[in-house]
């Protein structure tokens, strides 16, 4: 099974943002709080709606995300840009053993199943 690499990188980025913000946004108020935290660190503004879209909170939205959004989020977690973030992820991936890659694929399947369950409850 081929994995969508961008999807995996976006999940990793979401996880890093949540850890840095100490917030797993699930409500409109939490997405507003996250937008404020990102603005304070990066001086760039992402709307709560953009963040909701990136987190899959909005139904029937395109899974696509702008480079600007990805770069702002990457800078929020300490990288210079989306490109530098993905370069590090790719370097880690390229040095990973088959066991680690298998584990990552299994985790990705579990995350997808959990997201599907959560989305069906909205």
Q: Briefly, what is this?
A:
With 122 residues, the chain is mainly α. The protein contains six helices and no strands.
List the helices and strands and how they pair.
Blueprint: H1 5-21, H2 28-42, H3 48-55, H4 67-76, H5 82-94, H6 98-120
Helix pairs in contact: 1-4, 2-3, 4-5
Description:
This protein has 122 residues and is mainly α. The chain has one domain. The protein has helices at residues 5-21, 28-42, 48-55, 67-76, 82-94, 98-120. Helix 1 (5-21) packs across helix 4 (67-76), helix 2 (28-42) packs across helix 3 (48-55) and helix 4 crosses helix 5 (82-94). The two termini are 29 Å apart.
> On the 0-100 scale, what is the average pLDDT?
84
Query: What order do the helices and strands follow?
Result: HHHHHH
Give the DSSP E fraction (strand runs of 2 or more residues). under 5%
Q: Quick one: overall form?
A: globular
Tell me the Rg in angstroms.
Answer: 15 Å
Largest sheet: none
Report the helical percentage.
Answer: over 70%
Ranges with pLDDT <50 over ≥5 residues?
1-5
> Could you give the distance between the termini?
29 Å
Total domains: 1
Structural class: mainly alpha
| Number of beta strands | 0
Number of helices: 6
Name the descriptors.
single chain, mainly alpha, globular
